[in-house]
Amino acid sequence: MVRFLIHRPIAVTMAFLALLLIGLATTFNLPVSLMPDIDIPVVSIRISSTELPARQLENTVVKPLRNVLKEVNNVESMKSETRDGSAWVELRFRHGTPIDLASVEVNEKVDKALNYLPREMRRPEVIRASASDIPVFYLMVTQKGTDLPQFATATHQGTVQSSPLGGDGGGLLSLSNFSSQVIRKRLEQLPEVALVDMSGLQFPEIKITPRPEYLQSGAFSITRLEQALQENNIDLGNLLIRDGQYQYNIRFNTRLRDVSDIENIPVNLSGKVVKLKELAGVALQPQQPQGSVRLNAKEAVSLAIIKQSDARMAGLRKELDLMVSYFREDYPELEFSVTRDQTRLLEYSISNLGQSLLIGGLLAFLSMFLFLRERRAPWLIGISIPVSLIITLLFFYLAGLSINIISLSGLVLGVGMMIDNSIIVIDNITQHRQRKIANNKNQITIKSQVSNHEQQTTNNEQRTSDQELSNNLEPSNFSNNIKLLSDACTNGTNEVIRPLITSVLTTCAVFIPLIFMKGMAGALFFDQAVAVSIGLVVSLIVSITLLPTLYRLFYQSSKKGPEDDKKLPRYFHWYETGLKFILRHRFVSVTGFVFMLVMAAALWFLLPVSQFPEVSHDEILLEIDWNEPVTLDENTARTTALLSDIEEVPLYVIEEAGRQQYLLNSSDEAGISENRLYLKAQSPETLEELTRELTAKLKTKFPGAGFRFTDTENLFNLAFGKPEAPVVARFIHFNPGGANFLDELATLQESAETEFGERVQSKLITRRLLLLETDPEKLLFYQVDHNDLYREVKSAFNANTVFTINDNNMYVPVSIGNRYQSVYDIVQQVTVNNRN
């Protein structure tokens, strides 16, 4: 085969050139990501029930759900967390479990558990964690001034208004509307974007506030107000009516479409028909927020951009920068900031590995000049390295692999082995060529001695033979030397084909078993094992096909033989001297090696063990629980006070207070009294100073608050879970909810802190509740209906939603509220009508 190829250099060169062009084309189409596309074996279940407190939600919903979820196969761990109004259950499966089938099974178990859950509760949401669901960027939209861009929306009446439902469209409400209707849709039009997830939005509601004088006089009540709203909000759906040979769809539409329609509802007030606006105030206003997002203390709307699984991050970043520049030109009154950029880590990792790959190849190429003592052979090796790499990337494309830090590390690891194959082939061809010429020289010398007819011509004949040797590749002997070179390329390559194949297979035998490793480690090392194996096989093919052909082309026009008569370099003598010393002092050498083995075994037990090496970073996540029933405004006010007057000012701070609205948020929901701060510093050293300063301020100003610093969200945390402390102890009271159980847990916590000091980080997070209890005897005595009392209390606490209006693709609740400012005012001043 080798002889056939070396005599067809054009065909071999064109074939490899075609492979190089195809490889270059596919390289630009390979997906680039931080990690391989692996399934994250996590399924989360989000439970929402705003009317249930944590203890009741745990007993009536979470426990029955956990009992049913125990039947799910291949579950490695299950944990849950319950709060007032929400709960969260996480199932972590054994790696290798088909996560698609696992999520289907979890959905089936959730449907089965619905029989044991309260009927009025919404179905729990099942969220499958995926590596592609991690946002690549966060685009923060904030307001520069007080005026926001007004966008036209067409109503069902055919008119155009600047804000739906007759609102004035100001503040964060208009910013939220504009971001979801314009910014989000323009971003989702990019082919690289799969989804734009949003948080920090504010939604409108129509609030009806009855006038207290009418309620206290008894002429009007919350019950009559609800009846008037329901009577005018008719929605019977579609009716199919036949009229002769035709049939029609008839729809009974509601009369209530906006604020003005609700204001003009007729109400019978003691035999007199009046409009509702005379009895109550009707206004379009923002809903009471459960969470907020702020960028550098400014209210913001957060848009999490999730890329397509096969998209290249570099292309997405380029398109996003272009789109943001258009946004800044089109909407100068808004400020757009790209934060939490995951591509920086990707670019840093990929560029680091690419730089290592380039430097390693160059150093290997340069070292050939020192050891091969050839001027042309290193260039052949320099050609084989990029050829092997590009053809390897072609097989990456065919195998469905991506360019990530794991596959690139495999290529970096395999570069040295790729060069080995080329060195062995070239060196063996060179040795064959040297032996051929040496044999030629000996034959010429023997002939000159046998045909020595005259003693006086011996020196002339010797010079003739030397001249013949020196002119071995002159045109007169060109055909003979070409045959000699061809034989050297053929025999030298054929001689090492079997050892090379054996060497490649033995190396692959080390890496291929990594493919069959279980767990997340096996999934991560799959790309590395495949990359090394493909690279070695490709380098073997290149070394036994392309290199002999190029070697023959490089040396067939040479007029000089191999440079084998040069003086050996000095390091050759150093090696011989050292080898002789070891062979002469074998006892000392063996003793030294045994001593090093013993020291290595001893140091093995002293080496620190960790899941991943420590990586310096310049951003961190601070999670705070104020451990008090504070409002959302007080939450943000405390955060502002915490960040004020700090010496190490971060580049930016993103505050996510309370509950967030991200659809793909697979983690537990935060309460209103919790805050998450994403801190971006100028350098890792600055971040350490900032962390120490914030820790000291939290312990001084807010000693009762619980807090912790964790890494920001990335694929490692999603795949392996956020790192916890080396030892975590969880104490559960045998009688939760009983008398003095909190005091007993607090005593246990104090004793642990006293025993272990600063090594223990713990907080007893509690919630204070206000309990309102009715007196059944007084309700019967005063003839007060329970439903009427319930309506009055819900309206007093602004929690009485009557129905929802659907207009302009927006669902706006219509609720009855009150103007009371405190719980004391509600308890003392709210009146209830009895049956008389």
Walkthrough of the structure:
The strands form six sheets. Strands 5, 8, 15, 16, 17, 18, 19, 20 and 21 form a nine-stranded antiparallel sheet that branches. The chain has a four-stranded antiparallel sheet with strand order 2-3-1-4, with helices on one face. Helices cover 49% and strands 17% of the residues. By secondary structure, it is an alpha+beta fold. It contains 25 helices and 23 strands. 29% of the residues are buried. Strand 2 and strand 3 form a beta hairpin. The longest helix is centred in the middle third of the chain and has 46 residues, at 405-450.
Summed up:
By secondary structure, the protein is an alpha+beta fold. The protein is built from 25 helices and 23 strands. The longest helix has 46 residues, at 405-450.
Bin the helical content.
40-55%
Rg computed from alpha carbons, rounded to a whole number of angstroms: 39 Å
Please provide the count of β strands.
23
Low-confidence stretches: 146-169, 453-459, 464-476
Largest sheet: 9 strands, antiparallel
The oligomeric state is: single chain
- The number of helical runs is 25
Residue-averaged pLDDT: 78
Based on CA inertia axes, which overall geometry fits?
elongated
Class from secondary-structure proportions: alpha+beta
- Strand % is 15-25%
Distance between the termini: 109 Å
Give the secondary structure arrangement, pairings included.
Elements: H1 2-6, H2 9-27, E1 42-48, H3 54-69, E2 75-83, E3 86-93, H4 99-113, E4 125-128, E5 137-143, E6 153-154, E7 160-161, H5 171-188, E8 193-199, E9 204-210, H6 212-217, H7 222-232, E10 238-243, E11 246-251, H8 259-263, E12 266-269, E13 272-275, H9 276-279, E14 280-286, E15 291-295, E16 298-307, H10 313-330, E17 334-339, H11 342-371, H12 377-399, H13 405-450, H14 458-470, H15 478-511, H16 519-555, H17 570-584, H18 586-604, E18 619-625, H19 632-643, E19 652-658, E20 674-680, H20 684-701, E21 706-710, H21 715-720, H22 741-756, H23 776-781, H24 786-796, E22 800-807, E23 810-816, H25 823-829
Helix pairs in contact: 2-12, 2-16, 3-4, 11-12, 11-13, 12-13, 12-16, 13-14, 13-15, 13-16, 15-16
